[in-house]
Each structure stands twice: as structure tokens, then as C-alpha cells.
Design goal:
By secondary structure, the protein is α/β, with parallel strands linked by helices. The chain has a domain of about 130 residues: P-loop containing nucleotide triphosphate hydrolases (Rossmann fold, 3-Layer(aba) Sandwich), CATH 3.40.50. It is about 40% helix and about 15% strand. The strands form 2 sheets. A 5-stranded parallel beta sheet has the order 2-5-1-6-7, with helices on both faces. A two-stranded antiparallel ribbon has the order 3-4. A hairpin with a 3-residue loop joins strand 3 and strand 4.
Length: about 190
């Protein structure tokens, strides 16, 4: 079985959701890069050496894990830890609507004009909208594709607007197809 799975993609594409869902049916611990990247979630970044140290510690103490979120740039030294990388992509309009909804769920009316989180939310959504068209200078599809080019492990690309269960099935089918897991290890609903 693949012991170490990394799931990446644009903000709002569902990497954390897929990681959590897979960890419910695989004997893997789910780790999320946001917990290492942010000192104070979404407001203050942790210094890169500290991020690396904390993440690497958790990757080594857990026998089997799923890491969701991107480590491009700050975690390039971790590429050798991955046995499988899953890349998620959905159309920009769907992804941005998900992010707007998530921002409102998280902060309520504070994301509306005049609210205390309005400028922060607006800047975040503008940054997130760059993913499909930006170059290598920001977190983008181009950066992720370049980052995946020299991986020594397989890459499973799941592109399109699929449900969480459909994505879980795609990953499990892939793992089964290459005989890397016990087919009875996950009960699908």
C-alpha cells in the first residue's frame, strides 16, 4: 500500500476535504499544510524553517499519512517522502464560488463591504483568482505542474467538478489498480 499520499491543488479545490475523507477509510493520518504554514490561521505565517521542522517531524512519526495542501517552494525538500501525489483541479468559476461561500461561512457579514474582514477577503479572492492564469511567481497551476515534473512517485490527476465520494473512489480505484492496497481496507458508501 502507498504509505504517504500528498494531495495538492488550488485553494478551494477540496484538498483538505479529500484528505479527511480518505483518512476515514484508509489507515492513514490526515495532516494539512495550513496547520504548518500559519502561526495564526490566515493572518500570520510561520517562518519557513519552523514549518519544515514541524511538518517533517509529523511525517516521520506517522507511519502512514495523507498530506493535503501545497508545499511548493517551502517544502520542496519533502518530495522524496511522497509515494503518490494527487492533483485536483476544478473550473475557476466553481472554485471561486466555493471560496466566496467558505469566506462567508467563516466570517459572516464581516466579509461584506464595510466589514472588518472585507479587505482581507477581497485580497484573498483576488489572489485565488490568479491560479489558472498566473506564472511561477505565485501559487498557480503552472507552478504546481512544474513542481510535479520531477517527482519520483506517480501523480494521479483528478480534473473536473466531482463529488468527494467520486474523488475518493478514483483514488481507491487507482490504488487498487496498481495493487498497492488491500481492496477490503475501505468501506465505500
Amino acid at each position: 500500500m502507498k504509505k504517504n499520499i500528498h494531495i495538492l491543488g488550488a485553494s478551494g479545490v477540496g484538498t483538505s476535504t479529500l484528505g479527511a475523507a480518505l483518512s476515514k477509510c484508509l489507515p492513514h493520518t490526515h495532516l494539512d499544510t495550513d496547520n504548518y504554514y500559519w502561526l495564526d490561521k490566515f493572518t500570520k505565517k510561520r517562518e519557513i524553517p519552523e514549518r519544515r521542522k514541524l511538518l517533517e517531524k509529523d511525517l516521520t512519526i506517522n507511519e502512514k499519512w495523507i498530506l493535503s495542501g501545497a508545499v511548493c517552494g517551502w517544502g520542496d525538500n519533502l518530495k522524496s517522502y511522497f509515494d503518490l501525489v494527487v492533483f485536483l483541479w476544478i473550473p475557476q468559476d466553481i472554485r471561486l464560488e466555493r471560496l466566496k461561500h467558505r469566506e462567508f461561512q467563516r466570517y459572516g457579514n464581516e466579509v461584506l463591504a464595510g466589514g472588518s474582514k472585507y479587505e482581507q477577503s477581497k485580497a484573498f479572492l483576488e489572489w485565488a483568482s490568479l491560479y489558472d492564469t498566473a506564472g511561477m511567481e505565485v501559487r498557480s497551476k503552472a507552478l504546481h505542474e512544474h513542481w510535479m515534473e520531477d517527482l519520483s512517485c506517480p501523480v494521479l490527476k483528478i480534473e473536473g467538478d466531482h463529488s468527494v465520494n467520486e474523488r475518493v473512489d478514483r483514488v481507491l480505484d487507482y490504488l487498487n489498480s496498481i495493487k498497492l492496497m488491500d481492496s477490503d481496507s475501505c468501506i465505500r458508501k
